[in-house]
Amino acid sequence: MIDLRSDTVTRPTPSMRRAMMDAEVGDDVYGEDPSINLLERRAAEITGKEAALFVPTGTMGNTIAVKLHTNHGEEVICDSRSHVLNYELAMMAWFSGCVARPIATPKGILSWEQIRREIRPLGPHWAPTGLITLENTHNMAGGTVYPTANIREICEGAHERGLRVHMDGARVFNAAVALGIPVREIVDPADTVMFCVSKALGAPVGSLLAGSAESIARARLYRKRLGGGMRQAGVLAAAALIALEETPGRLFEDHANARFLAQGLARIPGIAVDPVAIETNIVIFDVSATGIASAEISTRLKERGVLLNGINEHQMRAVTHYDVDRAGCTTALETLADAVEAGPLSKPASVRSAS
Asked: How many angstroms from the chain centroid is the CA of residue 212?
């Protein structure tokens, strides 16, 4: 199968598997797993933060970050299509007692001017603003990258008002490659950042939350409350360390393959996509002009050996990663063209006669 559903489907490389087999381990809840400790130090170095915490998922990392920076009854400003709002089972409400203050943007990139207008002080009628979250790269906007000037302006404005900024940097390494700058330069103004090693970086499990030493000390307690104390997790940290050292240097290949996919998709009748807009490894395209619902296209593709998901009735998302090379992308395009060429499903005879 050619799997373009997400970069979460990557399988560990041979070097990751060897590292996992040879990993030195201990009890991480006691702080005694040397591989975990090394990974957390390395993550802190890469992000330029004082400390970092290994968590099993990006959702847990974001959940902990929201809790660190807010009090119950506050609002969290975020983009309207952000992961923290739409794909984390309302954890900002369930765990932190907060509600979202979403802002619609065309490319998932918030500006300080948009945020400034939505900040609410403590008052008798409304929930005060507790936190600002940024998603970089932005998943549902198609892997778009925050300009560093935007990040700095937002963080400076927030800090002047006593507010904190958390970056959901699940794919921040893709942003770094697209901008040609180190990760630490991107995340420097933010108070905390979460990044995933299990997406484009290719490790089997895990994310890192980085920030000040004080905030990460508290984060460790929240991780335990959420069931994230994983004991001898050094076998996972070993793969993550390989991912941090070996994978970033080849992410440009994923970006090139995403642009290749977009260019090919634009040539398929009924599919709309702007190849010029592709910045990283995510391609979101519109299939409404084919007359076929995205779910039906997914079914047809699966029957032909390609996995690709719809994100709503009219749009689909392809995510490139190291398990799908240029030849696989070519095959996926040919398969998709064949799947939509058949046209919409025919109506049942009874429906046709009634109409």
From this structure: 22
Pairing of strands 309-310, 315-319: antiparallel
Classify 309 as helix, strand or coil: strand
3-state secondary structure of 346: coil
The pLDDT tens digits of the residues spanning 62-109 come to 999 999 999 999 999 999 999 999 999 999 999 999 999 999 999 999
* Distance, CA of 25 to CA of 36 (rounded, Å): 8
183-218 b/e (C-beta count within 10 Å ≥ 16 → b): bbebbbbbbbbbbbbbbbbbbbbbbbbbbeeebbee
What is the CA angle 88-92-95, rounded to 5?
105
- In the chain, the domains with their CATH numbers are 11-246 (3.40.640.10), 250-341 (3.90.1150.10)
Pairwise CA distance, residues 304 & 268, whole Å: 17
Q: pTM value?
A: 0.94
Q: Which residues contact 75 (CB under 8 A, 6 or more apart)?
A: 98, 99, 100, 101, 120, 127, 128, 129, 130
Q: How far is CA 129 from CA 24, 64, 97, in A?
A: 44, 17, 13
